[in-house]
Amino acid sequence: MRNLPILLCLALALGIHAPPAQSQATGAQTVQEDAGPWRLACVVDRMTDAAACVLRHRDPVEDAGAGGVLALEIMDRGGMLVPAVTARNLSLDSAMRGLLAVAGVAQIRFDSHRMMEMPCGLEGRNLVCTPLRAEAEQAARQLMESRRVLVRMSGITGGAAGVEPTELALSDTARAGALLRRHQPEGSAPQGGGLDLQGMLNRLQGWFQ
Fold first, then answer.
1. Distance of alpha carbon 7 from alpha carbon 137, whole angstroms
2. What pLDDT does 49 receive?
3. Which residues pair with 72 in a beta bridge?
4. CA 107, 113, 117: angle at the middle one, nearest 5?
5. Exposure b/e, 78-97, CB count within 10 A at least 16 = b
6. Has residue 30 got a pLDDT over 80?
7. 173-182, 184-193, 199-208 — which is least confidently predicted?
8. What are the DSSP E strand ranges found in 36-103?
9. What contacts 118, CB < 8 A, 6 or more positions away?
């Protein structure tokens, strides 16, 4: 773990700070709906009428205590609804979660299909792990058709071999996806801009120039 201080600096340089103060604005329109184990929560921007939605499984992938929760979500990527493992609103207390973005992957397996590895990246103050572009269509199809999913994280502490994965039951996934599409139509979701390691190093270098 000799590189831990460097990795921590990378995580902090990418915008992992204390959570912002609660907004003083009132009257924001919110949407909350359930479909099986899926929970949809949206906040509508009153200036643009655009909805920012999160569709996640009610059971966590991993409870990180004060550091937050790793969750299974359904996200729009390139017009497809794909599985994602996320840790949102990272703070200094959970900066170690951000280090997964440097060398971390989420391992995911639907029913008896082959396991996929989803690389992790930082999007703002959120850790987001999504399928590789070449596997996105397959992952989207398996997500909608499957009855269960196994999820396991592999990060800076080494391989995940021998660590028991988290099993989540799936149902009403297509209906949940339809709810998300209704409130956040295809093409209206902000697309991820997670950085790879070279991008992280370039941004960190810029801080010292």
1. 32
2. 78
3. 85
4. 20
5. eeebbbbbbbbebbeebbbb
6. yes
7. 199-208
8. 38-44, 51-57, 62-63, 69-77, 80-87
9. 83, 84, 85, 105, 106, 107, 108, 129, 130, 131, 132, 139
